[in-house]
Amino acid sequence: GHAAWILDLVGDQGCVPRGDTCLDALRDELLAAALRPAPREGTDARDLFAEQVLFATLAGAPPGALAPAVEALLALQGEDGGFGAPGDASFAALHATSAAAWALAEWRAAAGG
Description:
Order of helices and strands: HHHHH
Number of helices: 5
Strand content: under 5%
Distance between the termini: 24 Å
Oligomer: single chain
Radius of gyration: 14 Å
Shape: elongated
């Protein structure tokens, strides 16, 4: 996931042409992972899922293709607004929430909203 972010950044800055990177393959891998049913009870699993949605979006996955994953991500949001596992107030839960918020913002921008 993080590799897709870096490749997106270097492409946007004109350092390396996108076609000379593996970003499209990473995008497809991240999209497939985000759409695959998986257990998401724990904070670590929720954080990984949020990052899959985020980095797939940054790598250029079509917003419509990611819509089911975005819906699944929103379904994980707790009553407190966070995306960590219920009752988890650790740094990992904060990271999961930050990744989810960033993913949702990027996805919405990519969707034109």
